[in-house]
Write a structure and sequence with these properties.
By secondary structure, the chain is an alpha/beta fold. It is built from seven helices and ten strands. The chain has a single domain, classed as Alpha-Beta Complex (Spore Coat Polysaccharide Biosynthesis Protein SpsA, Chain A), CATH 3.90.550.10. An eight-stranded mixed sheet has the order 1-10-8-9-7-2-5-6, sandwiched between helices. Strands 3-4 form a two-stranded antiparallel ribbon. The longest helix is centred in the middle third of the chain and has 14 residues. The two termini are about 20 Å apart.
Length: about 220
């Protein structure tokens, strides 16, 4: 996560926004966990719960709807631990070619639902609060920008929300960069201050998970 040359905005109170614009939630959960070692990190537990379930619950409990989980590596096992959630699943058969392929899969799902925007959450970020997603949605619906990234203390993190005007650009990205290029090129991109340190906390290696285990979400 990096500090960006982007304006930082304070979102309006969640309960004071007139809802205008549907926001589709997408959890990116297709990667191979290469830096984690031989285990699939998404199936490792934090406080006794698989990491991916924490991430999916964040969107399910937020105002984003519907929620799609993009699967790839080890898809059957990942899907099995999510059986209790009422979410859609999309399989990214090109997951080995980087995160951009999962972004494209998520954009296709959002287009199918004719969504006005999409918010992308990462499957390896279990400490994000549902309220943080609600703040992003509220900021979008109140006109704060067409690309909004969750931030903490002015530092850019995840999730990130994109208005549908950027769907074509997101559909053309390549490699393992996700939507960063689109974020940097958008004239009205902004960091939404969430007060949530979880937007900066991901799990890349076993030590990351161990430090997060038993910590506050």
């Amino acid at each position: 996560m990096t500090r960006e040359d982007l304006p930082v905005v304070d979102p309006p109170p969640v309960d004071e926004i007139e809802r205008d614009g549907s926001v589709h939630g997408v959890v990116l959960a297709a990667g191979t966990s290469d830096r984690y070692g031989s285990k699939n990190k998404l199936l490792e537990t934090i406080d006794g719960t698989p990491l991916i379930r924490h991430a999916v619950a964040t969107l399910v409990e937020s105002s984003a709807a519907p929620v799609t989980v993009v699967l790839g590596y080890d898809r059957e096992r990942v899907r099995r631990v999510l059986s209790e959630y009422d979410v859609d699943y999309q399989y990214n058969e090109s997951y080995e070619n980087g995160q951009s392929t999962s972004v494209r899969t998520g954009i296709s799902a959002a287009r199918e639902r004719d969504s006005d925007a999409v918010v992308f959450a990462l499957g390896d970020m279990p400490a994000v609060s549902p309220t943080t997603v609600d703040l992003l949605v509220s900021a979008y619906q109140s006109g704060c920008g067409s690309v909004l990234t969750a931030g903490y203390d002015g530092t850019r993190g995840n999730p990130v929300l994109f208005d549908s005007r950027h769907f074509d650009s997101l559909g053309s990205v390549s490699g393992d960069v996700g939507g960063r290029t689109v974020l940097r090129n958008a004239s009205d991109a902004a960091i939404v201050e969430t007060g949530d340190p979880g937007v900066l906390r991901d799990v890349d290696r076993p030590g990351d998970r161990e430090r997060m285990d038993s910590g506050p979400k």
